[in-house]
Amino acid sequence: MKITYYGHSCVLVEAEGRSVIIDPFLSGNPASGIAPKDIHVDAVLLTHGHSDHFGDCIEIAKANECPIIAVFELAEYCRSQGVQTYGMNIGGSQSFDGFKVKYTLAFHSSSVSVGDTWVYAGEPGGILLTMGGRTFFHAGDTALFGDMRLIGEMNKIDAAALPIGDALTMGPEDALLAAKWLQAEKVLPVHYNTFSGIHQDGALFCERLSQEGIKGYPLKPGESFEI
């Protein structure tokens, strides 16, 4: 499994000829390093509806004629925009062609911006993605919560993407504990340095991970690692 980071919380995951993108906030993020038209995937996965995660999902899904997989209410909103969708919910899993998705808890909020209003977009979630015999956990936007320990006990997590920005999600201290509870072998810090108020030192966070025996990857947009 190859994991490529495209800024903020966006990752492209590839294995055995299949590829999916999670939270494709690209055109609105000057640090993404890639344009939506250059994304070629079999599915788009969303953790929740906020614009810095929803991003370019509609454009990418239409261009690739692929589904958007999301929690039910968010999937229905995407369907209303003229794309294929597959609605799921927290705790549920589903096998697709070449990969499996399971939604986990995430403690945050979720809504879609429509004009001057915000539309409820269902519960936020984390995503357990299994491809090519490996499992990648994208925590989405979340606070630290005790059931992360249970997620780690129930699943062999080869790598995890954890938010460290603080203010809107957990910060580095809580993310370090989350990494240990999840028993993740490798960790990609996400959701930091994109906006004011969420500035963090990703390299320092990864140094602290290494002290706990966990390999951290403070990637720049466009960089990858494999598991």
What does the model show?
This protein is an alpha/beta fold. The protein is 22% helix and 31% strand. The chain has a single domain, classed as Ribonuclease Z/Hydroxyacylglutathione hydrolase-like (Metallo-beta-lactamase, Chain A). It has helices at 51-54, 57-64, 72-80, 148-154, 172-182, 202-211, and strands at residues 2-5, 11-15, 18-22, 43-45, 68-71, 85-88, 93-96, 99-105, 111-114, 117-120, 125-131, 134-138, 159-163, 186-190, 215-216, 224-226. The termini are close together. The mean pLDDT is 97.
Q: Based on CA inertia axes, which overall geometry fits?
A: globular
Radius of gyration (Å): 16 Å
The total tally of domains equals: 1
Task: For the record, give the distance between the C-alpha atoms at the N and C termini, rounded to a whole number.
Answer: 5 Å
Helical amount: 10-25%
CATH architecture: 4-Layer Sandwich
Give a brief outline of the structure.
This protein has 227 residues and is of the alpha/beta class. It has helices spanning 51-54, 57-64, 72-80, 148-154, 172-182, 202-211; strands spanning 2-5, 11-15, 18-22, 43-45, 68-71, 85-88, 93-96, 99-105, 111-114, 117-120, 125-131, 134-138, 159-163, 186-190, 215-216, 224-226.
